[in-house]
Structure formats: C-alpha cells, structure tokens
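quick one if you have a minute, typing this from the bus. theres a chain ive been looking at and ive put its sequence and its fold in token form underneath. please have a look and point out which stretches look like helix strand or loop to you. anything you notice is useful, everything is just below.

***
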Amino acid sequence: MIIDGKQIAKELRVKITDKVSTLDRKPGLAVILVGDDPASAVYVRNKDNACKEVGFYSEKINKPANITQAELLSEVDRLNHDDKIDGILVQLPLPSHLDTNQVVEAINPSKDVDGFHSENIGKLMQNRAFLRPCTPKGVMTLLQITGIDLAGKNCVVVGASNIVGRPMAIELLNASATVTICNSKTKNLSDKIKQADVLVVAVGRPKMIQGNWIKEGATVIDVGINRLDDGKLVGDVDFDATKDKVAWITPVPGGVGPMTIATLLENTLMAYENKI
C-alpha cells in the first residue's frame, strides 16, 4: 500500500489549526535564510506558507550570503530573546564561510524546532526527547499510521547524516527495533537491505536502491528527493520495481516531504505550549 504522506500531513495540520484557534497568542516561528540558494528559498517559502495556513505568526528573515558569523549569531540571539518567537530555524546549508555547528548551538534549545541542537539530540539518545528532528519524527508518524509494531523488527537505515540518518536510527532504536545503519563505506549493502523488515533510505542518489534488493512484504520509507534531467522528481528507491512486492511504501513526491513541514509546525506548537 502507498503511504500517503500528503494526506497524513494535511490531517496533522488541521489538528494544529484547530488548536491554534483556541490560543490567546499565535505560536511564532522565525526562519532565517542566508543567501539566495533557489532550493533553500523554496523550502523557506513553503514553511512560511504552512505557518500562515495553520494560523502561526511567521517571520521570514533574509540575510545576504556575505553575512559574518558574528552578525548571524547576533540575529539568532535577538530571536532567542523575542517573546513572540517560539521556534527558530536556520535554513541549511549555510555558505561555507559560516560555522554551521556554532550557529545551531547558539539557538535556545527550547526554541530549536529543527531538533538539531546537541541538547535535543542528547535527549533523543536518552529516549527522553522533547523537540525531535523533523524528518525522522515525521517518518515515525508515518510508520505509526501503518500500524506496524516496530519492536523486534529488523530496521535498516541507509544514510548516516546528522539531519536524517543518525537520528532516524535512534528513533527506531527507541521503538525497540533492531537497527542497522549503513553509510557510503558499507560493504555488501544489498545483503544488508535484504534483511530489512523496515527500510529507510536517505542518501540523495536517484533510484540507488534496486527492487531486487528488497525483501517481500517489507515497509519502505524513501526520504530522498532527486530531480532528473527531464525534471521528474524521484526517490532513492526504484519505486516502480519495488511497489508490487512490499507491504507499504512512500511515494516521491508526496511521502516524507509533506510530513517534514507538518512536523516542524507540530514542534513549534510544542515549543509554544512548553512556555505557558
């Protein structure tokens, strides 16, 4: 079956909208965009539109690509002390002259709605997370919708980034799954994938995962989104070669992507509620 992330995200946004309508103050999200990267600009615009849709207060802050580290840290500090702002997000990647880790660490952990601050990642590791990274958390929501009991399942995560792969593995571990995390140095990758009851792929390589690598009846979550030369968007998994042999699979587009933004809204509402 196809996991309709677009519909599940829509239902989550409706719940958030209903909740916001009962609040005395609108939850506030500030998004900082540095430079003019087209893909980042699209992501920021989508986040801004989603905020307005659910009734949040939204600040979209554009900074020039040549901003200094000190100037960017000063902007983050201003937002840390702004009572209208419950969530702060710095759109990544940043220009190469900026220290991304230092910028992320400058965000107040209680406003870190991306869930990237070391304090929030540490709490995730200890299975007592508050603000969790949006994409892995969104994936867990999708898996919950399928009704799969993850306890004891063989789960394979392909991709070891700090944004998706590593926190995704911890999310699954916290759900009592048996987790294998693979990276670019993994040998016999296809053999690892063939053991997976649940497969999560986030590598950014179009159709890298072939259909004959995947076990019959598995659940496949494809986080990748890649644009081909003809303009078509595809995932990291060969969808057409896989969809007829698995129990559940996310499409690209319309799978994980909408859940990431919906989860960002959910995190912002949680950060707001934590303050009152």
Observations:
- The chain has two domains: 25-109, 134-257.
- Residues 25-109 form a domain with the Rossmann fold fold (CATH 3.40.50.10860).
- The chain has ten helices and ten strands.
